[in-house]
Recover the amino acids of this structure.
C-alpha cells in the first residue's frame, strides 16, 4: 500500500498530477480543489495517498491531510459512491464541509457535488452520520500525536515526591476540549456547544472524543 508520496511535480493534468519520486513518476488523482492548491511544475509536493486496486486498474488518489484521506475512504463505503463521486464531494465541500453536512443532515449540500443525485446524497447522510464523529475527532486531535519524539516525550514523567498524590491523566478534559473544537468547526456557538458537550460528558464520563461528538450532535439536533 502506498500511503504517502513526496517528490517534485512534473506536470498538472486535468484531474491528476504527475509526481517524480527519485526518478519514478506517480500519477496521483486529486480533486480540483486539491490540485489547484498544489505548487507548479518543478516544485516539491507531498500528498497522503490511497491506492484503489481493481482487476484491471490501479489508481492512486492524493489528499493534503490524513483527515481528508479518511473522509474519502469513508465515502467509498457508501453504496453507489465511487472514487470519482467521493472526490467530487470532497472537492466541492472540503473535509469541514462534509463534516457539517453530515452533522446537520444536509443532504442538499452533498447533492451540490457534480454527478451526485438526491438519492445518493441522502444515502451518504443516512449511512455516514453515525460514523462521521470518529473522523471529525481526528481533525482536532493533537497534531504532534504522530510525532515519535513527541510521543516518547509524553510518557517521560518526573518522579513525584513520596507523599505527593499522583495525578490522573487528563483524558476526559482533553476529549471534551476536542469535542468542543469539532463542534466549533461545524459552526455551533461556544455556549450551545459547551452545554451539549457537558451534558454528554455527564451522561458518559469515560467517553472518548468521537463518542462525545456523536452524543453532543444528537443533543443539538433540531427537535421534532
Amino acid at each position: 500500500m502506498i500511503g504517502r508520496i513526496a517528490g517534485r511535480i512534473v506536470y498538472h493534468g486535468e484531474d491528476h498530477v504527475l509526481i517524480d519520486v527519485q526518478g519514478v513518476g506517480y500519477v496521483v488523482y486529486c480533486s480540483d480543489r486539491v490540485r489547484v492548491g498544489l505548487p507548479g511544475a518543478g516544485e516539491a509536493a507531498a500528498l497522503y495517498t490511497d491506492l484503489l486496486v481493481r482487476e484491471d486498474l490501479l489508481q492512486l488518489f492524493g489528499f493534503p491531510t490524513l483527515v481528508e484521506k479518511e473522509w474519502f475512504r469513508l465515502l467509498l463505503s457508501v453504496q453507489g459512491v465511487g472514487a470519482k463521486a467521493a472526490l467530487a464531494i470532497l472537492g466541492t465541500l472540503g473535509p469541514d464541509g462534509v463534516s457539517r453536512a453530515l452533522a446537520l443532515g444536509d443532504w442538499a449540500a452533498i447533492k451540490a457535488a457534480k454527478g451526485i443525485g438526491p438519492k445518493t446524497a441522502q444515502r451518504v447522510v443516512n449511512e455516514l452520520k453515525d460514523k462521521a464523529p470518529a473522523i471529525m475527532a481526528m481533525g482536532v486531535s493533537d497534531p504532534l500525536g504522530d510525532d515519535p519524539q513527541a510521543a516518547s516525550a509524553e510518557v517521560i514523567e518526573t518522579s513525584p515526591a513520596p507523599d505527593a498524590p499522583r495525578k490522573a491523566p487528563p483524558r476526559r478534559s482533553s476529549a471534551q476540549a476536542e469535542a468542543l473544537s469539532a463542534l466549533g468547526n461545524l459552526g455551533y456557538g461556544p455556549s450551545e456547544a459547551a452545554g451539549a458537550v457537558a451534558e454528554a460528558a455527564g451522561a458518559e464520563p469515560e467517553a472518548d472524543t468521537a463518542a462525545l461528538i456523536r452524543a453532543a450532535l444528537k443533543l443539538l439536533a433540531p427537535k421534532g
Residues 132-141+172-224 form a domain with the Helicase, Ruva Protein; domain 3 fold (CATH 1.10.8). The longest strand covers residues 44-54. Confidence is low (pLDDT under 50) at residues 142-162, 164-172.
